[in-house]
Input
Amino acid sequence: MASIIKKRVTLSSGHEADIAIVHVESFAVEAFNEVSPASLVTQTEIGLASARLGGAAIHPVSHQSLRSKTSAVVTGIAGSRLEMLAERAVTMVGQYARAGLSVEALWQDRRSEVPSVVPVPLAHTELIRLKSATLARDEVFANGNHFLFEPREFDTPFEAYGDPVGMVVIGGVMLHPPQVPRACLISDESRFSIKSLSFHDVRIVLPGGGAVESHIAGGFNAASYAGRPVAIARYYGSFDGLTPSGDGVFEVAVVGQYAVAFGWGGRMPIPRTGCVIRFPHEPDVALIHALRSGEALRYSLRNGSIVNAVQSGPRLVVNGVASADDTIFEKEGVFISGAAGDLRQPSPYNWKADWHDTRAARLGAGLDVDGHLFFIAVEGQSTYAGNGGPARGATLHDLSVLMRDCGAIQALHLDGGGSTQLFRPFGGSVLRPGNICRGFEDVEADYDRPIPLGLRLKLRTMDQTA
Output
């Protein structure tokens, strides 16, 4: 039996679709946003992002680890004071200021029904087709987890279009912590698993070795964390994406592993791709110097360790049973009907996705009864794609049934729609990419979507007698 099987199937919804089943021996997560891409790639990214975002001015920003030679002190929300440290934060707040937006004005604009066309920061991403030139003959590149994509998602001056959303672990190092309890695809070298992890499942080690506990889910619990530092994330100690105000408190905004801003008095906007470390008073000068200099934080799980992982979701199959309806969205914080505060704007934003109605390209990962890992990619084109012809592909319910019928006892959905990509060495596409760029009128064309990371899949040698 071949490691990759392509065929046309009839989905549970009654529609036909072309699929690829990929049997995998191992996978490794590769971050594409650590190093600035070639100038032509950057130009391509800017063009596609600008077209998709309605002509907004796009400006690339550096990796969050890079320090600015000069910091920028600005007024935050409700009069709080912020000091931008990282080069990307200084650049971004400057771009917004030139457009006439303060931090608070940006915050309010991104929460309006129709956000204004304001400058959009672009994180380093890559074209996975180009990265496939590094693949061995028995490898395939696939896309991974979700990333910030809609204008209202980058509502703080810390995060950018293309920043990964959810946990990312590479070679045992957690680059981004989990947020809401969504499904994670995990490799522990000897075995694979699919688990739901949240921000409260991690602890944080500061430069110098001091440990900080992560806040439990829900609003800020002042009594439980009185007199000691605590890590706050969206949905974990915040309301409407801000830290609570407090006399004398000192806060550090973190994107990924790196401090990007200091704040005094609370009301710090919380990045969707990191957290805020809240101290009851200004900490030791050595710690401040280390954070200002760009020393990385370290995340670890409270229980266990991970070698490689991405977080996406929702869960498609649990203990051999296909998920029946979209209540899984509420369980994983993808969409909460009638929600207030943080959950009004989950990431990806308001992703209801119509369990039975929205058809699109899809990518799922599943484990069979023997613990073997396989992926299923469904060729498609989103219901939401304008001027792109009829919708094609699978609903999420279709994908859950398909994963189960192909032997998955556990399965999750990876980033789908136009992000669904599966490439062989040197750019050969296993399935036709389905990214219709809505900014170009009267053009029937597929575009590779630039993404922040990929999954390098080593194909499993199959028993030819099976």
User: Anything to note?
Assistant: DSSP finds seven helices and 26 strands in the chain. The chain has a mean pLDDT of 90. The two ends are 6 Å apart (CA to CA).
